[in-house]
């Protein structure tokens, strides 16, 4: 049994239990390189060690500088992150920064954000964070160019990208901005790039709205088709399929759908990013116990994330709040689920990283 002791300040700091002033301290990246002091849930943060869903680039390209964004992570518990761009951008000529306020303005797939992320990574790779670059350009309703673009990425930035997504199968929020949901025929045309992803062992994060308040499972057949056609791919379903268009689904029905798919498709994972999950589902008193039980049961199939967008007007406090809200559910998880999800073991396993989550301290 391992505990942290206040009389050994140096050991305490290395273990990350508390700082010298008694406040919670954040562990270093190196502390995940092997066995480390156990994680004391009473004194250490419940927010995640890994942010698997964070957008370093916004829809209009006017972003928080890369090094500043890294400093935001460094000030929190996060030591590992997926560097998403945003694959769909507003036109360069547009004065719009929020597509929801600009119906009719196209928000279309592009490589621009990904290449900016890659250039920033080459120039400003941090020493105290482990960042995984993700390709976000893919248009799932027009998949034909994807493989050639993947080759271009590898030519320009060899070995730098190890993930694909967040990419949109169906995103109702962008229907007024020229987004077209992938059709069943389109999904069959993913075969080439999905094979390439399997060959490279890259996960893919898919945004696929489950449905809406009028019809909670309206779009479920699209996701089910993708899972059925590509069962060997590492597919991460973003936001558990939820969205602002679906805020009233019964938790029991939502959990039943997710449980069935997790049982049927062993390579499927879920991410619990975006604060709408807490605002409309996890935080409800009659829902919380159900979701905690679900996550405890499927603890090795869930990834944490903030879904923060690095728009230039957002601040560290904004990121801190998003990380805290999306991590509140961690407080109620069992120790195994907490280690798998919040402490990053699922992420390390998914990417075959040579890192290890600490064990949770036992009383």
TrEMBL record:
Domain Amidohydrolase-related: from-to ranges: 171-309
Listed SUPFAM superfamilies: Metallo-dependent hydrolases
Name the record gives this protein: Amidohydrolase family protein
Organism, as annotated: Marinomonas primoryensis
InterPro entries named among the record's database cross-references: Amidohydro-rel, Metal_Hydrolase
UniProt keyword annotations, A-Z: Signal
Superkingdom: Bacteria
UniProt feature coiled coil, ranges: none
Cleavable signal peptide: 1-20
Gene3D superfamilies according to UniProt: Metal-dependent hydrolases
């Amino acid at each position: 049994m391992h505990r942290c002791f206040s009389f050994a300040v140096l050991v305490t700091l290395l273990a990350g239990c508390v700082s010298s002033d008694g406040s919670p301290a954040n562990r270093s990246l190196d502390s995940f390189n092997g066995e480390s002091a156990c994680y004391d849930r009473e004194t250490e943060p419940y927010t995640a060690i890994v942010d698997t869903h964070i957008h370093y680039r916004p829809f209009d390209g006017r972003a928080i500088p890369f090094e500043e964004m890294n400093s935001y992570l460094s000030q929190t518990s996060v030591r590992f992150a997926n560097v998403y761009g945003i694959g769909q951008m507003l036109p360069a000529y547009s004065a719009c920064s929020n597509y929801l306020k600009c119906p009719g303005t196209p928000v279309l797939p592009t490589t621009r954000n990904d290449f900016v992320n890659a250039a920033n990574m080459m120039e400003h790779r941090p020493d105290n964070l482990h960042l995984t670059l993700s390709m976000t350009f893919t248009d799932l309703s027009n998949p034909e160019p994807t493989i050639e673009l993947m080759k271009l990425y590898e030519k320009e930035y060899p070995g730098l990208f190890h993930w694909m997504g967040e990419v949109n199968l169906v995103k109702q929020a962008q229907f007024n901005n020229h987004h077209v949901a992938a059709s069943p025929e389109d999904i069959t045309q993913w075969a080439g790039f999905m094979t390439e992803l399997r060959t490279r062992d890259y996960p893919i994060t898919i945004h696929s709205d489950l449905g809406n308040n009028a019809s909670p499972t309206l779009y479920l057949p699209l996701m089910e088709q993708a899972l059925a056609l590509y069962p060997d791919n590492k597919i991460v379903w973003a936001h558990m399929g939820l969205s602002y268009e679906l805020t009233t689904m019964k938790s029991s029905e939502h959990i039943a759908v997710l449980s069935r798919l997790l049982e049927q498709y062993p390579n499927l994972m879920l991410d619990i990013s975006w604060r709408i999950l807490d605002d409309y589902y996890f935080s409800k008193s009659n829902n919380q116990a159900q979701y905690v039980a679900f996550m405890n049961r499927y603890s090795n199939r869930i990834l944490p994330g903030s879904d923060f967008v690095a728009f230039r007007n957002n601040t560290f406090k904004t990121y801190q709040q998003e990380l805290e809200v999306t991590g509140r559910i961690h407080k109620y998880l069992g120790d195994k689920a907490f280690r798998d999800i919040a402490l990053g073991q699922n992420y390390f396993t998914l990417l075959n990283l040579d890192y290890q989550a600490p064990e949770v301290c036992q009383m």
